[in-house]
């Protein structure tokens, strides 16, 4: 008897790869010489296949591969077949391995282990702009408007706890294929910038 889980021989649909729920929020507030603007959005109702998780499992750097201290373990929520169609909760029969044979073979070969909700909330951009008072340069016939702005992009991303890997918007390539990501992509980054704008 082995504590390794058995494969379901039947393929199952896990969901669609395109978001069905979309929500966008844009706001702009002006006070005296300051302008604050922000853009946020939500996407949900779809799934993403995190191939990056497969790669991490294969190389042994995923949280699941180290969670048992590299020791054999009782697979969570598993049962033992006692024969005659009778199954009992498994409390003591461990996997036959907790290294590459199990994680890189048995576990890795089940694609649903890496499918998560693709839902997320994102704060896409925040901009704070200051318009210099025109009285500061009113005597000049050169300048019509001077402003300074600070902006940040991709500042906050909220996603379900089940998605422990990456930004669900990342796609495998630049085609119209969606719903999967790999380690060949650049990780999500935050971008900060400052702009001095002068209109003559």
Descriptive account of the structure:
By secondary structure, the protein is mainly beta. It is 10% helix and 38% strand. It has 3 helices and 10 strands; from the N terminus they run βββααββαβββββ. A hairpin with a 2-residue loop joins strand 4 and strand 5. It is elongated. It starts with 20 loop residues before the first strand and ends with a strand. The model has no long low-confidence stretch (mean pLDDT 89).
Short description:
With 200 residues, the chain is mostly beta strands. It has helices at 51-59, 63-66, 100-107; strands at residues 21-31, 34-44, 47-50, 79-83, 86-89, 115-117, 120-131, 145-158, 180-181, 191-199.
Descriptive tags:
10% helix, single chain, three-stranded mixed β-sheet, 200 residues, mainly beta, 3 helices
Helix vs. strand class: mainly beta
Tell me, what's the shape? elongated
pLDDT averaged residue by residue:
89
SSE sequence, one letter per element: EEEHHEEHEEEEE
Going across the major beta sheet, what is the strand order? Answer: 1-2-7-8-10
Main sheet properties = 5 strands, antiparallel
Q: What is the number of helices?
A: 3
- Taken as a percent bin, the fraction of beta residues is 35-45%
Output the radius of gyration.
Answer: 26 Å
Residues in helix, %:
10-25%
State the low-pLDDT regions, or none.
Answer: none
Which secondary structure elements does this structure contain, and how are they paired or packed?
Blueprint: E1 21-31, E2 34-44, E3 47-50, H1 51-59, H2 63-66, E4 79-83, E5 86-89, H3 100-107, E6 115-117, E7 120-131, E8 145-158, E9 180-181, E10 191-199
Parallel strand pairs: 3-9
Antiparallel strand pairs: 1-2, 2-7, 3-6, 4-5, 7-8, 8-10
């Amino acid at each position: 008897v082995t504590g390794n889980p058995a494969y379901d021989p039947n393929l199952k649909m896990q969901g669609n790869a395109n978001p069905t729920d979309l929500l966008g929020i844009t706001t702009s507030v002006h006070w005296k010489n300051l302008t604050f603007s922000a853009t946020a959005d939500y996407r949900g109702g779809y799934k993403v296949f995190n191939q990056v998780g497969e790669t991490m499992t294969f190389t042994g750097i995923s949280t699941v591969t180290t969670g048992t201290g590299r020791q054999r373990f009782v697979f969570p929520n598993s049962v033992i077949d006692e024969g005659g169609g009778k199954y009992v909760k498994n409390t003591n029969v461990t996997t036959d391995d907790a290294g590459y044979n199990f994680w890189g073979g048995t576990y890795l070969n089940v694609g649903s282990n890496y499918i998560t909700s693709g839902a997320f909330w994102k704060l896409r951009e925040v901009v704070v702009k200051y318009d210099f008072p025109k009285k500061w340069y009113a005597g000049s016939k050169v300048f019509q408007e001077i402003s300074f702005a600070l902006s940040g992009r991709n500042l906050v991303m909220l996603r379900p706890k089940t998605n422990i890997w990456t930004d669900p918007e990342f796609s495998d390539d630049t085609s119209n294929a969606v719903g999967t990501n790999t380690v060949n992509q650049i990780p999500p980054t935050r971008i900060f910038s400052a702009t001095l704008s002068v209109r003559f």
